[in-house]
Amino acid sequence: xxxxxxxxxxxxxxxxxxxxxxxxxxxxxxxxxxxISCPNNAIEIIEIKKPGAKDLSVVIDDKPFFLPKTTVRGxxxxxxxEFLKYPDYSNKKEIFTPCETGGCLSCAVxxxxxxxxxxxxxxxxxxxxxxxxxxxxxxxxQGFSGHGVGGVGTPWQIKEIFGFVEVVCFTxxxxxxxxxxxxxxxxxxxxxxxxxxxxTAEKMTRARERYSVDRMSIxxxxxxxxxxxxxxxxxxxxxxxxxxxxxxxVDTNGSILTDDYIDDLVEAGTTDIGIDLKSHNIRTFMEITxxxxxxxxxxxxxxxxxxxxxxxxxxxxxxxxxxxxxxxxVSLEEMAKMGEEIFKLSADVQVCVLDxxxxxxxxxxxRPNYADMGKVYxxxxxxxxxxxICQTAYGYIGP
Length: 399
Ligand code: FES
What we know:
The model has no long low-confidence stretch (mean pLDDT about 95). The chain is about 30% helix and about 25% strand.
């Protein structure tokens, strides 16, 4: 079996993203990362039968195999290893593959003694693969710069003060495929070395000193995808920042943030969490996230709402809720419904409405204007929510 990458000349704008940031450089093995991350939806991967193609001799979990050219994941799947779209931490045999673009390293296995993503790594002659992973986790992570506004889990009182409110690092890889992803270059970028929690914590701590701030934020992509890495990173960060002023802030879509995951995060040292609740209706959720598997979308959406409920009921950490707004995919009626549901959980929780602007694959969607966001503000305040802030091109509408 071989793979051919087809580029639609009518859609390709020669932006170079696939070549510069996700290119495999050594021939297509059909991982699909370039297709998923193309901002113009211009790439299709097709499989063809190549007569006479030689199988590769590899060793997987101490057993020899002859397998066709593919990804490591493809090889493992052909041998009935199971890959999950939703994590099951109780079963160490299955591999969680949430991003499928090589960024999160949740699917990593030992390849020739090194921890590497199975979803994008090409199978090679003589490779030795071990699916039992006992090494320190790694993840692609970028940024480490000052942020003047903060994220969903940043208290509104300190947003947009003069200067920086926090330092932030961004993790690559996401389990959503939002057509209007605001951060797609970071999300899909596969450049650089995957980093250990210790390396990342040290870099973040130095950034905190450099920018003279107390808040350290981790965002994405989706930072929760590689749980072992994130919990370990927060612990390391806490260890390096034991002073009473330090705040460790996690911004997430909440889709895999189960109760026990939240317990681990808080115990590790997380002080602030921002959770994006994308919608009230599942159809809107699927449109915003670009997910077409309804079962998995329902599970993700339910988990995020449950995460909000669990934090409000059990913890005294700072919680912010994010809601996207753009009249192209959500109505004011649905915004009101969301507001009512949030109000049932807490009238006081901070709700931050993000004005989704044209980006990634939805460049034609008009950015909501100041008056649009003003209407959203009135709707959410109208249902009784006390702390609503609405992002606009001219700053926040808020308390
Ligand atoms: S699923 Fe393979 S790196 Fe994220």
